[in-house]
Design brief:
This protein is of the alpha/beta class. Helices cover about 45% and strands about 15% of the residues. It is built from 35 helices and 34 strands. The structure holds adenosine-5'-diphosphate and magnesium ion (2 copies).
């Protein structure tokens, strides 16, 4: 026979912490606390299997359930010396829902169940306190009517308010027994009026009503939505806890409260919480009265005049301190506890691992390890890598006042303040004068890269989480709010307006890329703290890690940032980014417009010194760490203007004919540039471009090597290869250039040539390609596009429906598609390594900073991942966790 009901209380329990799946979180921990001998009011848990049964059988219960519940009620009655429904000595219970994962949306707790017109009198006699009994009864009617009978709370609130007004009362505490008695009659009349039948008087009917309401709430709209958002399977079901009541509303020596064993926002080791005297359950959070502090220290810090628990009820406080120590040691984590004090005696009603900010999570993990409660490896496993994002960027001071203008998508974390500008040119001009600006645009395009670099943050009114602005901003580590659709940009008048507020060009604005908020004015910020616990935990992570972590960087700023964050090299330097600004784009355009090779070489000669000096700087910053430089990759049209006005201006500035510029732009226009004239195809058609870049790399390596004394061994990466022949052709030019520079300078550079694997054909032909490549770097952004046949820029319009229908579990551009793209990576890694021992394998692209994708890289044994600078610490931690065997589940 299946066991459906599990009792707990009096120092033992039929369940324990390990039975969370069956008992739900609350039930399992109530059982565990009982087993620990802690003062827990006795009760029982109806298992989640009953919930599953209930929905599999048209909302009917297993036949033996009623027998199990009756037996458990008798057991609880025996432990408390009372009996459920007894007119003289009634047992009152609470009915509490409890799923495996705590789930808002489930039924609220019903307290004081078992009260009726008869048992209320018995309670008054037993407690020798009529006010307490009638106060409990009115609370019960309100809660039960609200959560079980579906009569809205405000009906009862209105009756209470009217009554208080008529009597001249302001506080609930001023009401006496007769007042509550009177209100109970009014409440019952209200129920009769709404339901057409009286409030249920039979305690068993009340109990089954509440149990069914808990199971019913598993399928209410709020719960379904929450499960959907947090990927909680419907099959888990919820448990129901029925527990003997203890009363925090039995006068001045009774109280109820909540406490954390450590401060959940800072992580500081201090008992932190609030309580209320003469109150029940929800009062503390309901905000009817201002709660009091638990410790004297907290009371003094808050400047409160109301006594702390420590001062008001010293015995109960000492007991709480004893229990909190015990619970932390037992659970080996910070606990969030709920308790009630009945006439001086402390009762524990709940404990669970407490929610905490990223900052607190870090401090608590490090402190627990230092206190010897957990190992360093466990500490490393305790911190969610994604949460580090919050710590690496400036954040808005939680104490600062926020005037919200609009809310968009939290596209790239961190907060930034600056003056409003509308174009990349304005942003650059401001940056030159060291003015801080926020670039506000409808959307951004590749031409805005330099403006985005110059700005403190980016705000767009259109586009989603994978829009150009969002992806580029995340790559740069710049705060970005995208798709703030409520905002209207008026370029002509230079204004930004939303919700009746109008801001002008130059006005201060703040964006919070972690929440999506757009705020008026300049707001106080907190700067990231990279020393202390952060440094300690990262150090421990590095000891557990096998995968190396490199960065994607091309600017000195990014490279320096990445080194500060612990990058062990550059895995992807996208040289085209170096061609976008200032004079470079002019020379670049000259090259593109040139009629023949001679013209192209002349333009490239202008680019050479600029490119060389960029590389020297990068090599110097990286001090001998590996640097992978990718040859020019994007289609050339990205460097040309398309608007007639722009074409005119640029042609004039270049001294070129606008007509020629227009024609060339038209010629280069492709219907599918992602699959067009780009990658190594450029180097095949115009080898002189690759030659210039190779020369710049070699000359820079020699120069930087001699300046720093650390030999530079550049890794030159050929993009978008599909055949070995392409690679061989480009490699021959690079090798020839290496020989030429060596001859000119009398110094040989130790370099290697490898390729990006970003086409399925390249992955399949890995054995062949490895014959010529010293390394592979999986360019999983493009490999995802080319494997799935989905363009990242256009995926927004349908990816949502794919996720909603469960066709794709994750956005494949955020988390690597293991089954498809992953299979290709695995296969290419195996084939490549079989063909060339010691073939170096890395992964670059957005996935390099995604914990779930990093776990995959660990599994297939890649050598390194490369990600944007701000994600380097995240990748370090995720790589350590992957090595420690953490099963990475992506959480919502
Ligand atoms: P939630 O999941 O919303 O926290 P709980 O089931 O924990 O709901 O109940 C909320 C509060 O109700 C508890 O913190 C406690 O104060 C009170 N409560 C629940 N059960 C009892 C009980 N048996 N005796 C006294 N108070 C109770
Ligand atoms: Mg609770
Ligand atoms: Mg690519």
């Amino acid at each position: 026979m299946t066991k459906w009901v599990y009792t707990f209380g009096d120092g033992k329990a039929e369940g324990n912490q390990g039975l969370k799946n069956l008992l739900g979180g609350k039930g399992a921990n109530l059982a565990e606390m009982s087993n620990l001998g802690l003062p827990v009011p006795p009760g029982f848990t109806i298992s989640t299997e009953v919930c599953t049964y209930y929905y599999a059988h048209e909302r009917r219960y297993p036949a033996e359930l009623a027998i199990g519940v009756d037996a458990a009620l008798k057991h609880v009655g025996a432990l408390t010396g009372r009996a459920f429904g007894d007119p003289e000595n009634p047992l009152l219970v609470s009915v509490r829902s409890g799923a495996r994962a705590s789930m808002p949306g489930m039924m609220d707790t019903v307290l004081n169940l078992g009260l009726n017109d008869v048992t209320v009198e018995a309670m008054a006699r037993l407690a020798n306190d009529a006010r307490f009994a009638w106060d409990s009864y009115r609370r019960f009617i309100t809660m039960y009517s609200n959560v079980v009978l579906d009569i809205e709370h405000h009906n009862f609130e209105d009756i209470l308010e009217e009554y208080k007004d008529s009597k001249g009362f302001t506080l609930d505490t001023e009401l006496g027994a007769d007042d509550w008695r009177h209100l109970v009659q009014a409440y019952k009349a209200c129920v009769q009026h709404h339901l057409g039948r009286p409030f249920p008087q039979d305690p068993h009917e009340q109990l089954w009503g509440a149990i069914s309401a808990v199971f019913g709430s598993w399928m209410n709209a709020r719960a379904i939505k929450y499960r959907e958002l947090h990927a909680i399977p419907e099959s888990w079901g919820t448990a129901v806890n029925v527990q003997a009541m203890v009363f925090g509303n039995m006068g001045e020596t009774s109280a109820t409260g909540v406490a954390f064993t450590r401060n959940p926002s800072t992580g500081a080791r201090e008992l932190y919480g609030e309580f209320l005297i003469n109150a029940q359950g929800e009062d503390v959070v309901a905000g009817i009265r201002t709660p009091q502090d638990i410790t004297e220290a907290a009371r003094l810090a808050a400047g409160s005049t109301k006594p702390s628990l420590e001062a008001a009820m010293p015995d109960a406080y000492r007991e709480l301190v004893r229990i909190y120590g015990l619970l932390e040691t037992h659970y080996r984590d910070m606990q969030d506890m709920e308790f009630t004090i009945e006439r001086g005696k402390l009762w524990m009603l709940q404990t669970r691992n407490g929610k905490r900010t990223a900052k607190a999570a870090l401090k608590i993990a490090v402190d627990l390890a230092n206190e010897g409660l957990i190992s360093r490896e466990e500490a490393v496993l305790r911190v969610d890598p994604a949460a580090l994002d919050q710590l690496l960027h400036p954040t808005i001071d939680p104490k600062a006042e926020r005037i919200v203008v609009a809310t968009g998508l939290p596209a790239s974390p961190g907060a930034a303040t600056g003056a409003i500008v509308f174009t990349s040119e304005e942003a650059e001009a401001a940056a030159r004068e060291k003015r801080k600006v926020i670039l506000v645009r409808v959307e951004t395009s590749p031409e805005d890269i330099h403006g985005m670099h110059a700005a403190e943050g980016i705000l767009t009114t259109r586009g989603g989480m994978t829009s150009h602005a969002a992806v580029v901003a995340r790559g740069m580590g710049k705060p970005c709010v995208s798709g703030a659709g409520a905002i209207r940009i008026d370029m002509v008048n230079g204004t930004v307006s939303a919700g009746g507020k109008v801001l002008k060009r130059g006005d201060s604005i703040t964006i919070d890329g972690s929440t999506g908020q757009v705020l008026q004015g300049e707001i106080a910020m907190l700067q990231p703290e990279l020393s202390g616990e952060f440094a300690t935990l990262m150090g421990w992570a590095d000891q557990s890690r096998r995968l190396k972590v490199r960065t994607n960087a091309e600017t000195p700023l990014d490279a320096r940032m990445a080194v500060k964050f612990g990058a062990e090299g550059i895995g992807l330097c996208r040289t085209e980014h170096m061609f976008f600004d200032g004079e470079r784009i002019i020379a670049m355009r000259e090259m593109i417009l040139a009629d023949d090779e001679k013209g192209r070489r002349a333009a490239l000669a202008k680019l050479l010194p600029m490119q060389r000096s960029d590389f020297i700087e990068l090599f110097e910053i990286m001090k001998g760490l590996p640097v992978t430089i990718r040859l020019l990759d994007p289609p050339l049209h990205e460097f040309l203007p398309h608007e007639p006005r722009e074409i005119q201006e640029i042609a004039e500035a270049m001294g070129a004919s606008p007509e020629k510029l227009r024609v060339r732009a038209l010629e280069l226009r492709e219907s599918n540039p992602m699959l067009g004239f780009r990658g190594c195809r450029l180097a095949v058609a115009y080898p002189e471009i690759a030659e210039m870049q190779a020369r710049a790399i070699f000359e820079a390596a020699i120069e930087a090597g001699s300046r720093t004394g650390a030999a530079v061994s550049p890794e030159i990466m050929v993009p978008l290869v599909m055949t070995r022949a392409e690679l061989d052709l480009v490699k021959a030019r690079i090798d020839a250039m290496a020989a030429a520079v060596a001859k000119e300078r009398g110094v040989t550079v130790d370099y290697s040539v490898g390729t990006m694997i970003e086409l399925p054909r390249a992955a399949l032909r890995a054995a062949d390609i490895a014959g010529s490549a010293a390394f592979f770097s999986f360019g999983t952004n493009d490999l995802t596009q080319t494997t799935l046949g989905i363009s990242r820029d256009d995926a927004g319009s349908f990816l949502g429906s794919y996720k909603a229908r469960g066709i794709l579990a994750e956005d494949p551009f955020v988390t690597l598609d293991r089954e498809g793209v992953g299979e290709l990576v695995k296969l290419a890694a195996e084939r490549g390594r079989a063909a060339r021992a010691g073939l170096k394998l890395g992964l670059c692209g957005e996935h390099g900073g995604d914990p779930a994708s990093i776990a995959f890289c660990e599994e297939v044994g890649l050598d390194y991942v490369s990600c944007s600078p701000f994600r380097v610490p995240i990748a370090r931690l995720a790589a350590a966790q992957a090595a420690l065997g953490r099963v990475t589940k992506t959480e919502g």
